[in-house]
């Protein structure tokens, strides 16, 4: 403290250098006194705090002593618990665990014994009920025994050898129960069927019978079990559906399906004292297929008999489950057989009743009504539940089915025509037309509009129409022969299109495109199906050519004829067949041209055996050339006869002209290529050429009447391009040098029109020896 005061004083002195010594001494004295006062106060405070702290420290020391004592006590207690109490506790827990396990085991044994008792009791009660023919109670007791056995078998870790024996006993008793129920079922419904080896047919079905036991009276019910007892017992055991499934299969196979398939079958019943027999009798049918009304009546009769004597029995699906609704045997059987029965009715009855003509669609309302009544009757007998079935939907959708059936029939008929023989032909003339009923006048169309417009023209307007008119046959198909099947095919197409004019919009569209499908089918089927014949037989190739042209000719106007009589969707431009025309023309031409190539190949092959027409002074060479010429002419004459009255005259003449031209061109080429032709060779070549010139025109016989063919034989140069060339060659073979030069006439004569200068020079060099005259003649050929 003194050091601090001294420092303070020194600081003060250093700070105030200007103070005088008296003031400094006074202040130092005051500061010293103040320091002493502060020192006294601090000592007093320290003494006070110490006096307060000392009792607290003494109390803390006492607490430390007490805590140490308590800690020693706790250690003693812990040691006691670990040594004595823990040992007793472990013993108690072990005893408790052992007692718990013993209790669980005893509880399990008790529950098993209880289930075994229940199983034994159920079997005893089952045997008693079975002896008394209380089949429902017996079946329920079996189910209880089965439930107890399942509970025993589900106990994991606890297996009894007796369980296997109990299971065997339960199976034996169940089969025994089913045997008794089966015996009772056999009394309810007895089938007498034809031998299994026989095929199910009309005669064998006639021997099918179903014997139904009539329901017992109240007195009889006491002696024997009623139908409901037997059937409900089957239901409890879960075997009712199996029995009904077998019964349903027999019912469909031997009664219901035959009634649908065979119109002559008529069901009837024969009643006896305790049985009703359902059997068949034969009646002569009016039609090949029964009408739906008749079929529905027959099936309804059979089901009514079954409902009355067998199926009108309520059956509980599960007796213990009170929430499960009660259903009748008829409902169960209906669920099993209705789908198959409905499909059979549709495929073998309703399909056959679909009209083939739109005019008969209105009469089909009767079939729809009878279908509705048939379903109502089945629902009343509880064979059916729920809403409208597929059977009624099919009947109501008659317009769609009519269109589908009509389209299918049309395509099938068309394909049969396409696969029939081509060579059966009919003659088509410009006057020929497809047999078609007169179409009704359209409600609107170009013709009508033109008539209305023409009435508005002023009387004084000048008519600018040319007085000369085209012949009525200008756009007609020329006379030829086509397959009778193709004519029928076109009639089928026209009749189908006529059908569309009286059909609904959807049906109209389907039928229209079915007609298009006919022609597309023809395009694909005929060339493939008749491929071999079309390649081998020239006449068939010609007929096929005519067939295609005939179809294309009608396709040009077919759509236009019906344009204003079809549905509005098709009237907007879709009703056309013009797009098919090029394909058919190409199809006919390709087939005929392929045959022409074959014939050309044969002609060239025959001419190849002529030994290039060289060395005709050799008898063998001349004979070979003569034979080749004769074979070619024979081939052409045969073709002329085969195609006679088949191809149109213009096509016939062009075809024969092309083939004859091929022969002449080949002969000219071969002779012109010869390097040396002697005088004798030239004479013989001339004689061979003369044969071709004299007999070649005779192959042109397009018509059966000989006198009418002369016109076409005289027009051979029109159809044979090389005819004049060939005749000029003959002139060269017999001419001298001067005559050849005259024929050339400085490149302006007939010879120059057919041969080039090089060809003429080559022939001159081959025919004449090398002389000045030949050189002079060659000089003029340029």
Automatic annotation (TrEMBL):
Its main location: nucleus. Belongs to the ZW10 family. Interacts with NBAS and KNTC1/ROD; the interactions are mutually exclusive and indicative for its association in two different vesicle tethering complexes. Component of the RZZ complex composed of KNTC1/ROD, ZW10 and ZWILCH. Component of the NRZ complex composed of NBAS, ZW10 and RINT1/TIP20L; NRZ associates with SNAREs STX18, USE1L, BNIP1/SEC20L and SEC22B (the assembly has been described as syntaxin 18 complex). Interacts directly with RINT1/TIP20L bound to BNIP1/SEC20L. Interacts with C19orf25 and ZWINT. Interacts with ZFYVE1. Residues 475-605 form the Centromere/kinetochore protein zw10 C-terminal domain. It is a peripheral membrane protein. This is Centromere/kinetochore protein zw10 homolog. GO terms for cellular component: endoplasmic reticulum membrane; nucleus; RZZ complex; spindle. It is found in: Chromosome, Centromere, Kinetochore; Cytoplasm, Cytoskeleton, Spindle; Endoplasmic reticulum membrane. Residues 181-418 form the Centromere/kinetochore protein zw10 middle domain. Keywords: Acetylation, Cell cycle, Cell division, Centromere, Chromosome, Coiled coil, Cytoplasm, Cytoskeleton, Endoplasmic reticulum, ER-Golgi transport, Kinetochore, Membrane, Mitosis, Phosphoprotein, Protein transport, Transport. It comes from the Eukaryota. PANTHER family: CENTROMERE/KINETOCHORE PROTEIN ZW10, CENTROMERE_KINETOCHORE PROTEIN ZW10 HOMOLOG. Residues 627-781 form the ZW10 C-terminal helical domain. GO terms for biological process: cell division; endoplasmic reticulum to Golgi vesicle-mediated transport; mitotic spindle assembly checkpoint signaling; protein transport. Residues 31-123 form the Centromere/kinetochore protein zw10 N-terminal domain. InterPro entries: Zw10/DSL1_C_sf, ZW10_C, ZW10_C_2, Zw10_middle, Zw10_N.
